[in-house]
């Protein structure tokens, strides 16, 4: 049977992708951020997962305001990237895992979720920046990826509790898949940040660290907040914690926090990184 070996939270800030393209990792502005990732890369190299289930939000590359599914799952054999206007170079195609993707879709529908199925979709920086951070030099080519998008741009968005329940259903689907595969989960997106408007640049480190505590010990506690309350506490893009909740929901029971770091601000965004391992 398939086995979930761990979950990783990470930012997907476009400026990170530009910095990697330009070789700026050791510049003072970025140094502390990029110093976070080598231990996680070492863990991935040691564990060698077969599949990455990647929770992200599409920022308009494929799912714009006129067509915005609440939950969407990639079921394609390959995913391409395209120029989004941020200055990030498009990355080589990402290999999909169609069999597990369809298994997840069927399981979700049998358990009262109705995701949009995407058999031809380009993935944006929400997916590509985490892949290049965790598998630099395009070494993600050795792993199959299932991109799962959650709406974090247009209201109404899924409640935090719904994103957590969505992840729980996906975790159940993975565990009952009858293939001997190792699966790693990626919950992407920043913590407190807002990119425009009068509150642009808002950060709330105290609330961010509380959320990181609760992702480990009590993810349901985050669900006490509505999306509006999350915006009030951490800015318009704080709702991206939906991807973290979905990732954590996939893991049954308790987790060991193997690593944690928090850096701010990078492009006016608080970056939280965690490595969570399921407890036996």
SSE topology:
Layout lengths: L2 E8 L3 H9 L5 H7 L3 H10 L3 E6 L14 E4 L3 E2 L14 E2 L2 H13 L5 E3 L6 H10 L9 E7 L9 H16 L6 E7 L16 H13 L9 H8 L6 H10 L4 E12 L2 E10 L2
Parallel strand pairs: 1-8, 2-7, 2-8, 3-6
Antiparallel strand pairs: 1-10, 3-7, 4-5, 9-10
Q: Key features?
A:
280 residues; alpha/beta; Protocatechuate 4,5-dioxygenase, Chain B; eight-stranded mixed beta sheet; two-stranded antiparallel sheet; 9 helices; 34% helix; 22% strand; Xdiol_dOase_suB; oxidoreductase activity, acting on single donors with incorporation of molecular oxygen, incorporation of two atoms of oxygen
Textual characterization of the structure:
This protein has a single domain (3-278), classed as 3-Layer(aba) Sandwich (Protocatechuate 4,5-dioxygenase, Chain B). Helices cover 34% and strands 22% of the residues. It has helices at residues 14-22, 28-34, 38-47, 98-110, 125-134, 160-175, 205-217, 227-234, 241-250, and strands at residues 3-10, 51-56, 71-74, 78-79, 94-95, 116-118, 144-150, 182-188, 255-266, 269-278. The strands form two sheets. An eight-stranded mixed beta sheet has the order 6-3-7-2-8-1-10-9, with helices on both faces. Strand 9 and strand 10 form a beta hairpin. The longest helix has 16 residues, at 160-175. The chain is globular. The protein starts with a strand and ends with a strand. The mean pLDDT is 96.
